[in-house]
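Let us practice reading a record.
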Amino acid sequence: MDYAELLQRLTINDPRVEDGRALAPSVLAPRTLALVRLAALVAVGGSEPTYGAEVDAAVGAGASADEVVDVLSAVVPLVGLPNVVAAAPKVALALGLEPVEGLWDDAAPGARPAGTRAAPTDAREPFGR
């Protein structure tokens, strides 16, 4: 189905899109799709386990930790800073960091806070928890 037909079905709330049968993304690359899904998760205020799954999917599809975090910056103008602030600790945990209030305040630029793990350099490996 081409984009115009899918858009028309969505516009009229066609029953064939209700259960997702006609909604499987077919054009977006897996990495892009995973980052888009992460952005949507920030917008709707997803749960911590969902962030873990989506971050793992993004990294598994080739996204770097920098790209995952950049999604947060990119969506601030659209979803608002409070939504991004609420999502940040969930993303940090999904990346293997321990977000603790005040822990990063005095850290030198580029330094990793004590008690945190470095994100893997190979983005194909899932992050540990």
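A brief commentary: Helices lie at 3-11, 15-18, 30-44, 48-60, 65-79, 81-94.
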